[in-house]
Fold these 2 entries.
Entry 1:
Amino acid sequence: MKTAQCIVNKHFKISAIDERIYGSFIEHMGRAVYTGIYQPEHATADEQGFRHDVIDTIQQLNVPIIRYPGGNFVSGYDWKDGIGPKQERPTRLDYAWFSLETNQFGINEFADWARKAGTEGMIAVNLGSGTPQEAGYLAEYCNIEQGTYWSDKRREHGYQQPHNFKVWCLGNEMDGPWQTCALTAEQYADKARETAKILKWVDPNIELVACGSSSKEMATFPEWDRTVLEACYEHVDYISLHRYYEYEGDKASFLAAYHDLDDFITTIKATADYAKAKHRSDKTMMLSLDEWNVWYIKHMDTKRWQWAPSIAEDVYSLLDALVVGGLLTTIVNNADRVKMACLAQLVNALAPIHTDPQGGVLRHATYYPFQQVSNYGRGEVYKNRVVCDCIETDKYGQVAELATLTTFDSQTNELAFFVLNIHLEEDIDLQLRLEEFGELMLLEQQVLTGEDLFAVNSFENPNKVVPQHIDVDKPVGTSFSFILPKASWTMLRFKRA
Ligand code: AHR
């Protein structure tokens, strides 16, 4: 059997983990909102129409921040359509997804829903068809206590206390020709900077995210990011990154996505640091990976001008779940610069959670690695020295066959280790050396694997792809050996003895 070693030393801490790295995303897209989180006639809906079966499923994911309301949707969205008496709200054409938007769910409903779901909002403003002034009015509506036109309107609408949203995104993917009123880098840089000034005048306590390139494949990447950062450096706190992967027939390359994401993050860090040097700035720009996931974008089917159509309802397989696990290792290993990240998205549209409007909730396979890392990958992240072989991939060349992540939480005294074995034919005997952490007791071992990499969960068979709990007799030690099955994702939890 193949062997490998992973040595983790408590003196080699990468960073404390900002919990917002386990964020997610709800866009007005397909059935994410309507018949997803909001469905007044559903059996589990509360008096506000929020589905509690969905809230419960989200709560188990432990998601501290949720981006809203888009996405592409926000670039043509007038937030004022979604406030005030519901019967007076207009139905509009949503240019992003060619859907009908009834505006029955708006910023106030989102604030209430987020509170009930135990999460916070990351609010995106419209920098497509919208203006800096309208973005400022939204911040005034949400974050000013009272005594101004928009804050008093909010009070009139029944919200005496401000929502106090802390994180604001300056538009969405404004380099994309698919965006309502896309901009050149120079146009966006000016618009984002002027909007940033207004938003921070309205509320100096907020944090701002500037749009980076919408993907690494854009012709303007990474020049867009350089232009935007040079123009906005002292006005914003984060640059955004978006990254999606899909299986295109080559399993090895798909499983190696974790390696590509690391490369992408490295490039954006370098670009941001160039802008820092140019500005002679003391501030280090942090990264917000505010869209990431597996997404079968080529299978998108858009029906025109329907309300709550099924869009991007990907049914994720075991293979997809393994890829999501690998991506999580990369994200958290970069926690020194990636302070926020959003699994895109959360419900129905390219999401781990699927709802039946007439029934219950289904957890797709990708739900599980996210749940494990979000719940247990807390505290601090440590550097791993991995001695293993590489695999030759068509897309990325030589890639290490193991992707690993080690976190230690001093609150719970628990160490968590996550590992993806991307080898398609061979199990690997891993020796995990944790000597510097002192004596540890193995609490739990969970493995996600299976013969059929394309197996999926369904309402008929909801537990076809779930992690298996391996019986452990709670060994104590400083070095442990585990068999990592071919094409598998493993979580190990230890407690300091
Ligand atoms: O998450 C789906 C879409 O992907 C978002 O609306 C957009 O920002 C990205 O292209």
Note: Residues 254 and 401 are 12 Å apart (CA to CA).
Entry 2:
Amino acid sequence: MTEVTPSGSASKRPAISFEFFPPKTAEMELGLWDTIKRLAPLTPSFVSVTYGAGGSTRERTHSTIARILAETELLPAAHLTCVGAAQGEIDDIVGRYYELGVRHIVALRGDPPGGIGTPFSTHPDGYQTSADLVAGIKRQHGDIEVSVSAYPEKHPESRDFDADIDVLKAKVDAGATRAITQVFFDNDLYFRYLDRVRARGISIPVVPGIMPMHNFKQARNFVTRAGTTVPSWLAEKFDGLDDDPDTRKLVAATVAAGQVQKLARHGVDTFHFYTMNRADLVFAISHLLGIRPAGAQKAA
Ligand code: FAD
């Protein structure tokens, strides 16, 4: 098993980043902003905002990013996919972000417009692959930092790991400088994947994506469709808790805290949290990693 420092930094305090999704309603927006206010003092390296399947949240992603820039000190990263738009439209989106001051994009191919499991197609005049999108962004503005996805269990559409890592290599060759992984629950999968990636000569940070399971059943359905294995030991921990959200929350925090602490013990020093727009578990897990709000004193 590899000893890893995904960021290559020797800093004691792990670097963290948070992922949010653009809120659909005014009430969800209030919830997101409570979350942002609670998590911002933890001084994440960046916060990212997802882009709905098929580009469905284009304007909401943009307005969430704009508000983060206007009202906080946080550095936002905008997710962007190739789906449902011609290259010119995507380039315009990138241009608008640049004018706003955004200097980080998470560039993705996106899911097939017909849903996961259906054949992938994009706009005939669109970017056809994530690597094309990365190259397009870098051509437009070389100073935009581009992050991409990585799949410790390989992407469900990948023939095998070699084919999967070919795609990661193409994205890195096009200018990506960070990969963020799909959620995983078995750390060995991450370390084995990292061994494969490093063996291919890919040296960029491969940051583990961590998802605290606030609602286990719902999250299980969602992550399983995206190709993540949910081990039986994990499912057993949530057995009998369907009607007990308080205990579920404690269990979810314990499981995710155990996962990140084990990763940290093996030298992982950078984590990306899928927050699901909720602060409590992510705040607690960050605390266990030794992260304190800016200005707060750490106990001696
Ligand atoms: P890629 O890494 O480009 O490719 C995935 C797989 O597709 C490859 O491994 C390969 O099997 C196949 N493939 C791709 N190109 C080729 C090719 N040229 N030849 C052969 N096979 C190929 N989705 C959203 O809609 N919005 C988001 O905001 C969003 N954020 C995400 C953030 C992260 C960190 C992750 C891990 C995923 C995110 N997704 C998002 C999901 C993502 O869009 C889907 O998993 C999608 O199916 C693949 O997009 P990708 O960029 O990860 O694909």
Note: The radius of gyration is 19 Å.
